[in-house]
Amino acid sequence: MRKQTDSARKQRLALVPCPYQGHINPILQLGKILQSRGFSITILHTIYNSPNPQAHPDFSFFPIPEGLSKSDISSGDLAHIVTTINDNCKVSFQHLMEQQESQEDDIACIIWDEYMYFSDAVATNLNIPSIIFRTSSAATFLGRCALLQLHARGLIPFQDSILHEMVPELYPLRYKDLPLPICSEFESSVPLIVDSHKIRNASAIIWNTVDCIEQSCLMQIKKEHCPVPIFPIGPMHMIAPPNSVSLLKEGTSCIPWLDKQSLNSVIYVSLGTMVSIGEKEVAEMAWGLANSKQPFLWVIRPGSICGSDWIEKLPQGFKVGVRERGCIVKWAPQKEVLAHKAVGGFWSHCGWNSTLESICEGVPMICNPHFGDQSVNARYVSHEWRVGLELENLERGEIERAITKLILDDEGKDIRARAKDLKEKVKLCTGEGGSSQSHLNELVDLIMSF
Ligand code: UDX
């Protein structure tokens, strides 16, 4: 199947995203990066949550029918959805790849999100090299390895008595910070974690992280878990040329509102693309924000408050107060918001993309993790890089104190200073001659050598 490379033809890379915003964004950014190094890019994506081809007219897009039913999708069971995609996509993906190889440029390599592991079998069948793309932190990978071991020893679910103890060899993670999936039954997620960790026939791993924040975790992974080269070439959004890759419409109405606020005064609140919250929690958030007396920009995704379409369940008195000091939007251009001079803090669920974006803008964080890798990232933000505070309880008094400390008080001064320092360190890594750029050069050399 593999043809001789014809130097007159441009080398093409096939990228396979996992169909969630937190995975699609970085893989499209990776596509932009590799395109800027001379490769043509083809995105092979599921029909479910497909990316918008119009946002990338210079990429080729091909849908793979993944056969998810309405009930699969509405189940919200991520392990089931991802497993079904892997079960259903292999044959059509192979067919599409064969067509590509006959019609387009040579496919030099298939780069697949770690959860789209059906791609590796097809790459092997067609004798095309493949590379894995990991979109969560290196610390999360180690956390998941620990969970698999603890599961094998019958220790999950954890006894309450050990939740606050440190996990041996995984400082600063406590048992309660390990990345347990969204569904309460860990058992049902084990096969997916095992499958996403396998290297199979891949030649290398691209990681959306950066040496200066995760070097020791990356070294541990290289030593204990990984016989192939690892290329930490992130944060992808810093290396990639700017472009909108959002699945949701980015409301820009908040920017003129931010323009009117004073320097470093606004707390930006967003819990990402998947977290849902109950009415009681929303009331605590609302009153915590109101009582802090700081201006706030709050992203409330339609449907993210349980049992309501948008903001109907916000407390009535609060809605009146919002007009004075707050701005609520359905979606925001997050990177632009974090870069805005009025933003002084980010109250985040600590998804990995949000964490990286906040670090890159030097914005200190209030960490409010909900599930999965978010608790690992939150712990690293608050206890390793120490550029944020962890919210232990979603309770209005604690929220008010956290916002005041992060944005105003002397007590938060060191956190704010460290956030600025970390921003500079990452800038050095992503700038010319920095570690991410060097790893990118090595990656390009590897692909060219296939
Ligand atoms: C999910 C999981 O929750 C997370 O733990 C995992 O690391 C990735 O997948 P998600 O909720 O998508 O995370 O959060 P995150 O990884 O932070 O990605 C969200 C992306 O959406 C970010 O790139 C952010 O800039 C963007 N976003 C979010 C917006 O552009 N506007 C918004 O209003 C909110």
Task: Please sum up the structure shown.
By secondary structure, the protein is of the alpha/beta class.
Order the strands across the largest sheet as they lie in space: 3-2-1-4-5-6-7
CATH architecture heading of the largest domain: 3-Layer(aba) Sandwich
User: What portion of residues belong to β-strands?
Assistant: 5-15%
CATH C-level of the largest domain: Alpha Beta
Helix content: 40-55%
Q: Quick check: average pLDDT?
A: 93
CATH homologous superfamily placement of the largest domain: Glycogen Phosphorylase B
- Helix-and-strand structural type: alpha/beta
Q: Please report the distance between the alpha carbons of the first and last residues.
A: 14 Å
Descriptive overview:
It comes from Ziziphus jujuba. Keywords: Glycosyltransferase, Transferase. Belongs to the UDP-glycosyltransferase family. The chain folds into two domains: 6-137 and 186-245 and 430-449, Rossmann fold (3-Layer(aba) Sandwich); 254-427, Glycogen Phosphorylase B (Rossmann fold, 3-Layer(aba) Sandwich), CATH 3.40.50.2000. 44% of the residues lie in helices and 14% in strands. The chain is an alpha/beta fold and 450 residues long. It contains 17 helices and 13 strands. α10 packs across α15. α13 (352-361) links the parallel β11 and β12. The longest helix has 26 residues, at 78-103. The strands form two sheets. Strands 3-2-1-4-5-6-7 form a seven-stranded parallel sheet, sandwiched between helices. The protein has a six-stranded parallel sheet with strand order 10-9-8-11-12-13, sandwiched between helices. It starts with 11 loop residues before the first strand and ends with a helix. The chain has helices at 21-36, 70-75, 78-103, 118-125, 138-152, 190-197, 211-225, 236-239, 254-259, 279-292, 316-325, 334-339, 352-361, 374-384, 396-407, 413-430, 435-449, and strands at residues 12-16, 40-46, 60-64, 107-113, 130-134, 204-207, 230-232, 266-270, 296-299, 326-329, 343-348, 365-367, 388-390. The protein is globular, with a radius of gyration of 22 Å. Residues 20-22, 25, 136, 246, 270, 272-274, 299, 331-332, 334-335, 351-354, 357, 372-374 line the site of uridine-5'-diphosphate-xylopyranose.
